[in-house]
Fold these 2 entries.
Entry 1:
Amino acid sequence: MEQKIESDTSFVSYPLSMIFPDKFLPGDVYLYLDGHFIKYKETGDFIPAIRFNQFMLKKHKFIFVQINDLEKFKQWSTSIQDKIDGVIIQAVGQSNAELVPLIKDIKKAAFDFLSSDAKDQIAKDILDKTRAFVAKVNERQTTQDYLLKMLQYDQGMADHGLNVANISTYLAINLGYTQQIILENIYLGALLHDFGKTLIKAKFLENPESRAYKQAILKHPEYGKNELIIRGNYPEDVLKIVSEHHEKHDGTGYPGQLKGTKIYQLTKIVSIANDFDNIVMSYKGEIPKRQANGLKELEQWAGTKYDPVVLPKAIKALKLVLAK
């Protein structure tokens, strides 16, 4: 139960970007509401990913901890990030270790982008970091499997965007897209595909089962595209991916009920990557089993949800490098 505590100076803000959802907390966590600190989670508890994402959607950048626990939280965050980095470096090889900080930079830029109302500088930052990363990856012989080895299935919204970006770029390469600008656009469009969710009014986010919430979610592709147009400098390819990523091959998707060839070709790739990552995250158990279930579900929707020409090629490419 949440416990109200009078406002005082014994609390300090802690960046939400340094919190890991579904990981046991090293100390109590507080929210600041109506002039009071409210105990939200106790030591040893965790912040569920769905709640973590709600904080992001509401553009909360901080939670609060007791000042005496600050160092403990810093060590906790560093320890978890070091373990994640170690797993990734082991997967991609020491020769690719220099790319790990680049993906962390993109995650930080994506987090700032999703949780901020600022426009110009943050938009430029995420564009620059995306281009630099894709250019670096595209130089390497290990591109074919490197991107998929960067996946992190137990994180929140920013990590989902990264996963979808990595999968989409990998699939694009395997489907014959090799031009730098195309890979940049699919990476950025996939990274920001759910950006529109952060533009839904906070009052609609309280109850995910409500009709108002579901109607707002149906509009998030349009919200995302329109806001990116306002922010400027986003290529048309990126705007199409953001606005069309929930369209379906048979015309039953949203928001435009586009069908078949009316759906942009790069969007078809991102849609497959998006659903695959969502499916894998929704299952429990070991990664290989979750991925196998993801592939099975994708195969069931050939010709209805997904392009019957693109999907088999995508599945074949995924089977080459997924965990065994």
Entry 2:
Amino acid sequence: MRQSQYFLKTSKNTPSDDVSINATLLEQGGFVYKNSAGIYSYLPLGWRVVQKIAHIIREEMDGIGGQEMFMPALHDKHYLKATGRWDVDVVFKVNSGDQKEPQFNISWTHEEIMSEIAARYVSSYRDLPFATYQIQTKFRNEARAKSGLLRGREFMMKDLYSFHRDEEDLNRYYEIVRDAYFKIFKRCDLEALYTLAAGGDFTSNYTHEFQVVCPVGEDTIFVCEKCDYAENKEISKLKKGNPCPKCGGVVYEKKSIEVGNIFRYGTKYSEPFNLQFTDEKGQRKFVQSGAYGIGLGRVMGTVVEVSHDSNGIIWPQSLAPFSVHLVSLEPTSPGVHSEAEGLYSSLQRRGIEVLYDDRDLSAGSKFTDSDLIGIPWRLLVSPKTRKAGKLEVKNRKTGKIELVPADLETVSKLIR
């Protein structure tokens, strides 16, 4: 993609109403546009990152038998009324036509919707287990929408729902999802801690969160220095310096960001929607269910919070909007123009995602934008490099700059 034609404009100005690092860098870098508190538009550069996250999630969910589907954002009130969640504070309610009282809510979760659908298709033990998932927009009336993408009123969420004949099978799948989540976060270059937590409005049982240690995190966790056992402070009886209940190591207190959570519901949502099956003995039983969530925007914001420097974002290769930032200095110079254009075409033919800065700007402006955007590799073509028969390559993560032979094979091996 030619940067001169790309819908992208960086800014030197920091957002006046949000001091979080992810909000500042993502807005300055042209990844997102803030429409109002907790509501963002993902611009082309940012949407490419979201799509990378979604791709990783889909691969791992498909790998554990998840089947993707899509459900409505507008829900009739009978769904939340059935489970007593109609009056939860975060629910956005809307009127229908001339109705004086709200008859619908805009989705903040889909347990009720999915349970009613499942009741239509499950009748026998032979129909179990199964798991479905969705990636779509959710809406929650957050009282204090802040911290950029970490806490929003409108956000993208992956929810997996699983259905089982008994608690034993639910527990089996719960562990499978846990392992898949670790793979997802590792592929996103995040070190997540499996953390015991409360269920909130979703379940009365204990649940588990995936927390990433970060100084600006809204959560506080107690984590063992030795085995990484962790508990959310909200439910924990641990204190800083206590022995770990798992291995006896020393427990530390850390700030963290929740990037995912998993829940075991039992029959909490099956009973209101009469989601039952007939077992081998002909007995009717309620289906056991679980749900497993990941916020895509939260993952994106968290990566920025933990992977940046004073100059901008440092994207991991797996999530970067482009693999290579090709920068041409003095692009109006015939020799530089020819070499940069040839390299751009060659990289594209190799299937390498490249953002080509062909703008007629100063070297300083181009380097500043490149560091801010944070693409893993910068390739520089200039009169100086052309004279030497080389290319200047910069690794955004390490900052290392080196001159390499100006041939595609060398470049391809370096950036893979």
